[in-house]
Amino acid sequence: MHIDLGGRTALVTGGSEGLGLAIASRLARSGARVGILARRPDVLAKAVERLSKETPGAIFGHPCDVTDESALHSAVEATVDAIGPIDILVNNAGSSSRGAFPDLSRKSLLDDYNLKVVAAIVLSQLVLPHMQEQRWGRIINIVSINAKAPKAESAPTTLSRAAGITLSKVMSQELAPWNVLVNALCIGTIKSGQWERRHRQNAPDDVPYEEYLAPFAKAVPLGRLGEAEELANVACFLASDAASYITGAAINVDGGLSPVP
Fold this sequence. Notes:
The chain has 261 residues and is an alpha/beta fold. Helix content is 46%, strand content 17%. Strands 3-2-1-4-6-8-9 form a seven-stranded parallel sheet, sandwiched between helices. A two-stranded antiparallel sheet has the order 5-7.
């Protein structure tokens, strides 16, 4: 399917590598002007350079810790000044913070919630007035299938991800009168920076990346891990006019892994 996002401006958090970078690239290749936010200026600069070579549209990067509310205000202002008001927001920034229930602390819970839920709320509030004024907007929250079917020792991340699904549904109901569509993408085992870090931390030195992933791939009905581009394709579809009647959905992108649709 050809998707044309010409004339639209998108903002992607956690957009300097992995899934966020794949989404930013896909939106840009479909014609959108794209801003990306990330914490590390050096990694962000490399991502902007790469996207600028891959795509003809305007690319803008701004260093930002999304848990810092004042930094979010500055980041949105800088992005709007550089490439225009935000039509499409992808809340992708996150991590996989997990531990045993007896070890959960107030700090770990609040830190994770601030990163994945509060940041998404603040950013959505900042870009919303423009979307309401033009009566067109897309907000996509990247969450996890584990929010629907959590496993042992998966908190606090699964708690925050479940809140992300609920947030998406609440927003979709409230913002529908302005044609601002809000959906969640629930990802399964998709190749990303997190999997690369797990490989470096957990695998013996002589075990290649693909070999390390093989046991996880066996658990997926499709028999493989997803590619970042496959998630990006779904996000791009939801950001387009082709998805004009989809809102409040929590869509699994997981190769059939989740027991909960």
